[in-house]
Amino acid sequence: MSLLFLKSLLIGLSIAAPVGPVGLLCIQRTLGHGARIGFISGLGAAAADACYGALGAFGMGAVTHFFVQLATPLALAGGLFLAWLGLKMLRAAPAERAARAEAPARALPAFASVFVLTLGNPLTILSFIAIFATLAGGEALSGTDGLVMVLGVFCGSALWWLGLSLGVSAIRHRLDARAMAWIDRTAGACLLGFAAWQLARLAA
């Protein structure tokens, strides 16, 4: 069981680690509001990973089929949400950016927004289905083994977001307002790029 947990933890870590829109968003929020909000944002991604991991681990065929059928609408919603976040970052005025930095960020919206964004990536569910089917030998797991795998995925993903938020937070106070504005604009442009790529794939 310890080996199963370790394998699942590494899966969660490896899926969370590549830098993408969620990573950029967590970095930007950590710089703007501190490690706590950055980590909570990352936990939203970890929770979404655990949800998709449960589908793969327990072989929930009907639910899995339902999500696969929703791949296109989910990708469309995720792409539009990314575009909105990117535009919001690009259009933030200096006064708005300063006020945002001073105001305490709320944990629930930070968690929920990244949770929804991660659910909107259809590649996530397909990746987990394939990986968990391989680990489970093509059969659905039940009881303790399935829970261990899902917990391992969540812990691995959460471990990555904890390390990222703490690492970014360590340099946060070395950045002045001009650097933060540049980071916000760069993150916004990158999020728009990810959104355009995702929407272009749907239109192809």
Automatic annotation (TrEMBL):
It is a multi-pass membrane protein. GO terms for cellular component: plasma membrane. One of its GO terms (molecular function) is amino acid transmembrane transporter activity. Pfam families: LysE (PF01810). InterPro entries: LeuE-type. It comes from the Bacteria. It is found in: Cell membrane. The chain crosses the membrane at residues 6-27, 39-60, 66-87, 108-135, 147-170. Keywords: Cell membrane, Membrane, Transmembrane, Transmembrane helix. This is Lysine transporter LysE. It comes from Metapseudomonas resinovorans NBRC 106553. The lineage of its organism: Bacteria, Pseudomonadati, Pseudomonadota, Gammaproteobacteria, Pseudomonadales.
